[in-house]
TrEMBL record:
InterPro entries: A/G_AdeGlyc_MutY, DNA_glycosylase, Endonuclease3_FeS-loop_motif, Endouclease-III_FeS-bd_BS, HhH-GPD_domain, HhH_base_excis_C, HhH_motif, MIG/MutY. The gene is mutY. Its EC number is 3.2.2.31. One of its GO terms (molecular function) is purine-specific mismatch base pair DNA N-glycosylase activity. PANTHER family: ADENINE DNA GLYCOSYLASE (PTHR42944:SF1). It comes from Salipaludibacillus neizhouensis. It comes from the Bacteria. Coiled coil: none annotated. Its cofactor is [4Fe-4S] cluster. Residues 49-200 form the HhH-GPD domain. This is Adenine DNA glycosylase. One of its GO terms (biological process) is mismatch repair. PROSITE patterns: ENDONUCLEASE_III_1. Binds 1 [4Fe-4S] cluster. Keywords: 4Fe-4S, DNA damage, DNA repair, DNA-binding, Glycosidase, Hydrolase, Iron, Iron-sulfur, Metal-binding.
Length: 372
DNA sequence: AAGACGGGGAG
DNA sequence: CTCCCAGTCTT
């Protein structure tokens, strides 16, 4: 068999594969908010939100975000704190900060138009190989690969590829495959169809091979190894951390909150003062209270709630202390300067600050229960 | 190449 | 309980 003829066969299979996939997609695609129009800005926001996050989780956030920031100009003009508040509960908050910064960049350097070249779009903060390809293809119909977890799973099965998809180098292999098989005139639909197939049919467990539109193209189905693919190394167990948090109330019923550092875990979100437990007793709590610059009523403190919160790489076991404040030595705690990292606020004002879910749990178990 | 970075839902 | 999701950035 000649080399030319093999290429012809590949091309024929490719055309049939595209046809089978796109025909299925045209009929079965979900009606998602970001599919109602092709505004590159809206596609962009949706893609950032969808990173490591399921569609059902994203939808209400996306709707709210678009009502608050319907355009590049609106988002670029917003306060970062407002953007973080809109992101509250979604997780991976650097996505929100990077998106905000990148949108400002688009407004200033690209006249508010989301760039349509691989080179320009990849310079934007938070836009990596996947998101660049997703925006170029979905918004501009440019035949660029957009390889996410879905695509790697689908293609690993179709081509029985046993490479570890947890490795950073593996993605490039799948990008090369997509470049070979992508529809050049329907790049937007093709990439979305591949992901839609991964989400609806070619699922991680119990894939619905019997109703799969491309089952005739699938090596894993043919060999019966779909349950073995894709290969993915399992990650190590998260590290456990014992924390102690303080819900401190002054005589007017205000509570003390503080802003987290600009970088690292939950950067720039707000929280109740807390420390990593240093002792088994309460002495570390007392020294921290002294450091804040306040005094408590009485000399006894006790734990009123235990909160467990699981991150991808850390587990917080938080002992929550509630206490009444009798004296405040540090008068800065009452200044409304936003640069102030610690401040007393009213219970109603809690709704204005972005909190991580771990501290929303603390609010639920203490302040929201009344008993101030 | 490996780890940091959230939170939720499915099985 | 385990897995992992429309990943990116940092080291």
């Amino acid at each position: 068999m000649s080399f030319e003829k093999e290429n012809i066969m590949v091309d024929i299979n490719k055309t049939v594969f595209q046809g089978d996939l796109l025909e299925w997609y045209d009929i079965n695609k979900r009606d998602l908010p970001w599919r109602r129009e092709r505004d590159p800005y809206k596609i962009w926001v949706s893609e950032i939100m969808l990173q490591q996050t399921k569609v059902d989780t994203v939808i209400p956030y996306y709707e709210r975000f678009m009502s608050l920031f319907p355009s590049v100009e609106k988002l670029a003009g917003a306060e970062e704190e407002t953007v973080l508040k809109a992101w509250e509960g979604l997780g991976y908050y650097s996505r929100a900060r990077n998106l905000h910064q990148a949108v400002k960049e688009v407004k200033e350097s690209y006249g508010g138009i989301v760039p349509n070249s691989e080179e320009d779009i990849s310079t934007l903060k938070g836009v990596g190989p996947y998101t660049a390809g997703a925006i170029l293809s979905i918004a501009y119909n440019i035949p660029a690969p957009a390889v996410d977890g879905n695509v790697m799973r689908v293609l690993a099965r179709i081509n029985t590829i046993y490479d570890d998809i947890a490795k950073s180098t593996t993605r490039k292999k799948f990008e090369a495959i997509v470049r070979e098989i992508i529809s050049t005139d329907r790049a937007s639909d093709f990439n979305q169809a591949l992901m839609e197939l991964g989400a609806m049919i070619c699922t991680p467990r119990n894939p619905a091979c019997l109703i799969c539109p491309v089952q005739n193209h699938c090596s894993a189905k043919e060999e019966g190894v779909q349950d073995l693919l894709p290969v993915k190394a399992k990650k190590k167990a998260p590290k456990k951390l014992n924390m102690k948090a303080l819900v401190l109330k002054d005589k007017e019923g205000r509570v003390l909150i503080e802003r987290r550092p600009d970088t690292g875990l939950l950067a720039k979100l707000w929280q109740f003062p807390n420390i990593e437990a240093a002792t088994r007793d309460h002495t570390d709590i007392f020294s921290h209270i002294e450091k804040i610059g306040i005094e408590l009523e009485g000399s006894e403190v006790h734990v009123t709630q235990k909160v467990k919160h699981v991150f991808s790489h850390i587990v917080w076991e938080i002992d929550v202390y509630e206490a009444r404040v009798s004296k405040v030595h540090n008068e800065k705690l009452y200044e409304t300067d936003t640069r102030n990292s610690q401040r007393f606020i009213t219970v109603d004002e809690l709704n204005w600050f972005p909190f991580p879910v771990s501290h929303q749990k603390i609010i639920e178990g203490t302040i929201a229960k009344g008993e101030v």
